[in-house]
Amino acid sequence: MKRALLISATFALLLAPLCAGAQEVYFSAGRNVLTNTKYVTGLVNGSRGCNSFDAGILWKASGTPAADMYHNPRVGLGFSYTNLGSLDCMEGSSIGDSFALYGTFVRDVLTFGPIRSGYDLQFGGALMTKPYHKTDNPLNVLYGGPFTFHIKAGIYILADITPQWSIGAEVGFKHNSACRLTIPNRGVNAVCYSFTSSYSFGNNTVKPGQQIKDASPLNRKLRFALFASGGIHRCMAEWEADQLLPVQERPDYYTPWFKGSVGAEVIWRYCQRTSSGLQLELHYLGNMEALRRSDAAMYGTRAKDAEYSPLSPGIGFVQDLYFGSWALGGGFGVYLYRKVGIHENRGPFYQKVHLRYYPPFLPSCFAGIALRAHKFNRADYLEFTLGAVL
159 with 125: CB under 8 angstroms? Predict the structure, then answer.
């Protein structure tokens, strides 16, 4: 079944260019090495490396100010298979395999004759075949359900050996996480390296064309925006407290809790491609009683003096990269006040990666999604955002 699914997906991607007018098809094969050793050590025996395979189709963006500004990048769809199930795990547990479908953005940054180098960004969803189960797969705490988000960032170097064919190598970092939509959710983190080849249905050498004048000149003044975000997550503290119970008494279902924020930001867009600014937010966490119960179960008398508040103000730095109506950004912030007990307290800092869309018919408004994390490796929840530029 696994092999049939892999062959079918690859065959579909091979036929897609004929149907969808794609301009390039690519293949890659390589290795993934798991990095989150704290949670992998108790699960995997020996080597943490496994094979991976990717295939996809690309279109060259052209004819717009954004495409010209980025020297005609490529966007497309890809399929990824990672053989995590081949890892030698402790008896009675398995990580399973990963089948991912993703969107990708590929941009050449440096060119030296036939040699090209650049970066590749991927975002999509993945089907994981062996999620955690309290009796059937108890040691796989990396993901608690079959569906996760697939995120990858890499850098590559390619050599154009003919006007159509290119070969090269890529190294990057991959993350799979359910953003605590299911628990447990430690996440699957891996360093990836692969050999890749691509075939272009035209000439794969991008030649600079005539500059396209943007009809909307850049306004370099400061801009202010208001936004509201929200999402759900499940509480890891509840799950970890329940590990103290006999297996038969542990629940199969955990209540999802609301998390959200409202905020304001001041942004200076100093060039067409990027902007920087500051963001002030008021975070809301809706599961204070669950945290109290969990802390009491895990820490006993220590939890008596713990403080809890659903509101946590924070301030942070934010950086955005723009491509047409889209903005990809990230931020690093610090809580000015946060009282969430013992177990949920992961320090004063938080991180965020977001993707926003500014519709052309309403350019002063935006909608988007964001992934929030703590300690750079704890994906706490996925939030949806609506905002307006004042």
Answer: no
